Amino acid sequence: MSQFTPSTVERRLLMDRSVPGRRSVRMPAPDVPRAPLPAESMLRKDLQLPELSELEIVRYFTLLSQLNFSIDTNFYPLGSCTMKYNPKLNDEMASLPGMAEIHPHQPDSSVQGALRLMYELQEVLGEITGLPCVCLSPLAGAQGEYAGLLVARGYHRYKRDGDRKVALIPDSAHGTNPASASMAGFEVVTVPSDRQGNVDVEALKKLADRRTAVFMLTLPSTVGLFEPRILEITRAIHEAGGLVYADGANLNALLGLTRLGDLGFDIAHSNLHKTFSTPHGGGGPGAGPVLVKAELADFLPTPVVARVDNEYRLVAPKNSVGRLSGFHGSFGILVRAYTYIRMMGLEGMRQISENAIINANYVQSKLKADYDLPFGGRYSMHEVVFSARRQKAVGVSALDVAKRLIDHGVHPPTMYFPLIVPEALMVEPTETETKETLDGFIEVMKKIAREAEEKPEVLKSAPHDTPNTRLDEASAARKPYLRWQRNGAAAPAQP
Ligand SMILES: *Cc1c(COP(=O)(O)O)cnc(C)c1O
Questions:
Q1: How do beta strands 481-483 and 491-492 pair?
Q2: In the structure, which protein residues have their CB atom closer than 6 angstroms to any atom of ligand 1?
C-alpha cells in the first residue's frame, strides 16, 4: 500500500474523531494546594477540545508523520535546494548536551569548545571557497546576501566612493538577489543573458562604470551551467572599480574543484542548509555565512570568532556593518555543517561535487530525447534544467508533469524557475542517490512524456493518489482554512 492511502476512517480530522466523555489519561488528585483561577471574565465557558483515547491520538499523529514527504522516504530532486541525504550522525552531534544546552549569554571562557567549532568552521569554509574571512551569523541565504551587500556598501563608503549605487544583476538571477540589493539601498540594473544562457559579457562591459558598486552572479548559474567567461567578467568589474559578489547558495558543484576567491569574487554567501548537510526544502532553520577576501574583513557583520592568545573570543570587526541576528547564528546548523565537513574531509568534498555533476549529466543525457534542453545540451553542473515546451505544445504543462510525478512517489522538481526558461523543470538529483533510483526516475519521466502524447487527461488531473488531489493553489495560499468548526464547516482563516 502506498504511503498516501490511509483508510477513510483513519483520515478523519482529530476533532471529527472526538466522542464526548472519552479520555486518554486520568490525572491523579492534586496533592498541592489549588492555585486560584483568574477572574471569571477571563475564563471561557466552552472550549472545543477533542476527546479521544491515547491510541487514537497516537494513530492520528503517526498518520500525519507518514503523510510528510521527506528525503528519508522518497527521491526529492528539487532543483536549487540540494535535497541530499544528511547523515544522522550530524544530528546526533548537534544534540550533544555540550552543543544543545549551552546558552548564548554564557561567558566565552565557559564555551571554548563551541567557539572553537565556529572558528574552525570559519577557517574551513574560507579554505573551500578561497574567501578566507567569514561571519557565520546570517540565518538564511537571503540574509547572507543582504550582509554581503552591506559589506560592499560599507567598503565603498569607507573609500569615499559613495556614488557607486548600482548593483548589476543578470536576468537569470535568483529572486532574492535583486530583493537583497534593493534592501541594501542599491539601484538594481539587469544584465541580459546570451543565447547559451550565459551572462552577455559585451552588455555587461557596457554597463560597468563608475556607478557600479557590485555585480552579483550565481555560480553555477540558475540554469545549472558554469559561466565560461568568468575570469573576463570578474576582471571587467574590477577594472570599473566595482566588487564581484558570488551567490554561492549552491556549492554542490564546486567543492574541491574550483574556488570562488580564485575566480576573482570578492564577496559570497553560502547556504549551509543546502550543501552542508541541513535540508533546504524542509522549512526549518538555516545558516547563510558571508565570506569575503581579506581586504573586506573589517566590514563583516558582528560577531566573528577570533583566536586571541590561544583563546576563542567573539569579536566585532573594526568597521562592522553591524549585527544581523540576536546571537551568533543558527548554532545547531553550524554543528551539522562542521561534522559533515570533518567526516567527508577535503578529499571527500571533491567527490561530493564530482558525483553530483555526474548524476545530473546522467539524467540529462537519458532524458534529452524526451524533454527539451533550453541551451542546446551543454554539460550541466549539479542540476539540469529541462523545458516542457514540447509537451506544452500538446496542452500539457510543466505543472502537470510535476503533479504526475507525485503519483510515482517522486517529489516534483523546481518549476517555472529560472524565469528565462519557459515551462522550466529544474532537476537536482544530488550525489547521494543511487543509479537504481536515478534509473527509476528516468523511466517515470519517459512514461510521463508518452502519456503527454497519448492520454494527457491523466496528467491534467494528477495527482490521483494523495489525500488531496489537484489543489486550487492560489486559494490554498491566499484563503487557507486553518480552523476546524463543528458540523464539518471549515472556517476561512482570519485575514
Ligand atoms: C536558495 C537560494 C537562495 C536563498 O537562500 P534562502 O536560505 O532560501 O534565503 C539564494 N540564491 C540561490 C541561488 C539559491 O538557490
A1: antiparallel
A2: 80, 140-142, 174, 176, 218, 247, 249-250, 271, 286, 288
Domains of the chain: 88-343 (3.40.640.10), 354-477 (3.90.1150.10)
463 upstream amide cis, omega within 30 of 0: yes
Q: Which residues pair with 304 in a beta bridge?
A: 315
CA distance 290 to 447: 43
Whole-angstrom distance, CA of residue 399 vs CA of residue 133: 42
pLDDT for 52:
94
Q: Fill in the amino acid letter for 380.
A: S
Q: Say which amino acid occupies 492.
A: P
Q: What is the pLDDT of residues 220-235, one digit of tens each?
A: 998 899 999 999 999 9
pLDDT one-digit tens code per residue, 351-383: 999 999 999 999 999 999 999 999 877 889 999
Q: In this structure, what DSSP letter does residue 372 have?
A: B
- Do residues 166 and 211 touch, judged by C-beta distance below 8 A? yes
Through-space distance between the first and last CA atoms of the chain, rounded to whole angstroms: 39
pTM: 0.90
9-44, pLDDT tens digit by residue? 667 788 888 899 999 988 899 999 999 999 999 998
* DSSP state for residue 209 in the 8-state scheme: S
Helices (H) and strands (E) in the chain, counts: 15, 14
Whole-number mean pLDDT of the chain? Answer: 92
Nearest atom within ligand 1 for CA of residue 286: 7
Q: Which atom of ligand 1 is nearest to the CA of 140?
A: 7
Question: What is the pLDDT, as a whole number, of residue 332?
Answer: 95
Q: Which atom of ligand 1 lies at the shortest distance from residue 144's CA?
A: 9
3-class secondary structure, 61: helix
